[in-house]
Amino acid sequence: MAEGRVIVVMGPTASGKSALALAMARAAGPAVELVSADSMQVYRGMDIGTAKPTTSERSEVIHHGLDLVDPTHDGFTVEDWLAHAHAALAAIHARGGVAIVVGGTNLYAKALIEGLFDGPPADPALREELGTWELDALRSELVRIDPVAAERIHRNDRRRTIRAIEVHRATGTPISVLQAQWRDRPAALPAGWSLVGLSMGVEANNRRINARVRGMRAMGLVDEVRSLLGAGGFGAQAATAVGYRELIAHLHGAGSEDDAFEAIKIATRQLAKQQRTWLKRFADTPGSTWIDAGDGLTEQRMAEIAKISFA
Asked: Whole-angstrom Cα distance, residue 83 to residue 249?
């Protein structure tokens, strides 16, 4: 765990957490750097649909965790992101700076704060045995013992598939169940860390989501997806991103553009609902401050929060 000051900013999608983090960094000065905790902002070229910081914002405040792999790359894991995030935090603290971690992938934040679920130790003999199996046989075994994990783990991810089978053999419990128990455990912040959380009513959040999607359409999201398809396309993982999967389907002939954008609004609202459920696990975290964002934070309110956060 990196030693130094870290502020984690959390909230459902479209609640204004990225704008708040940027306002905090601006208020505190150049010693503050941002670390993205968004599982889809790691993909190069997926800018509009992931609400990635603009070129201007990135030139104003240093950002980490963006544009790490191409959209064709499959198998980018939480472990991969953690390795990058820990390196970024170490570099920021070595410069005497403060890190603000912000993004909508709450699994990333949980793993950064507490470490990943690790489970039982490795079984070298079992791994050697499973290493001789064909991938299709491994996948069939995983589907049999843990269909939830099989749905979540990419079918070509041999390492994670073997690990899931290994955990089941060692404990008799599916790894998906053990990971859920880890997710449900209350968070505990490391020394020197604080958490700023935004809460927002469902109706206000939905209005902001709908407005954001309309804005993405106006900014050229369709052309962005079309360009990426022409430049090599998407791997299975990147293709699941909300906003991209719907437009990929549309550009391949499924439904109208209007239908695709309505589907994006629905999917984004569902994502926000899942995020709000996740965020309840952080609500009572010691060292956290939760703010009712109402219909959106004003510039003045963000400045006030920044002042409190760096007091």
From this structure: 33
Residue type, 105: T
> Per the structure, how many domains does the chain have?
2
Residue 309's pLDDT band (boundaries 50, 70, 90)? confident
User: Which DSSP string do the residues of 71-121 spell out, in sequence order?
Assistant: TT-----HHHHHHHHHHHHHHHHHTT-EEEEE-S-HHHHHHHHH-----SP
For the segment 225-242, the average pLDDT, to the nearest whole number, is 95
- Is the confidence at residue 1, as pLDDT, over 60? no
The CATH number of the domain where 72 resides is what?
3.40.50.300
| Same domain flag for 209 and 84 | yes
pLDDT at position 286 is: 86
Question: Do residues 100 and 21 make contact, with C-beta atoms less than 8 angstroms apart?
Answer: yes
* Same domain, yes or no: 42 and 107: yes
192 belongs to a structural domain = no
Q: Which residue has the tokens 């699941």?
A: 240
Predicted TM-score (pTM) of this structure? 0.85
Domain co-membership, 150 together with 205 = no
* Per-residue tokens: 237: 């993982």
- Cα separation of 65 and 40, whole Å? 10
Identity at 283, one-letter amino acid code: A
- Residue 110 counted as domain residue: yes
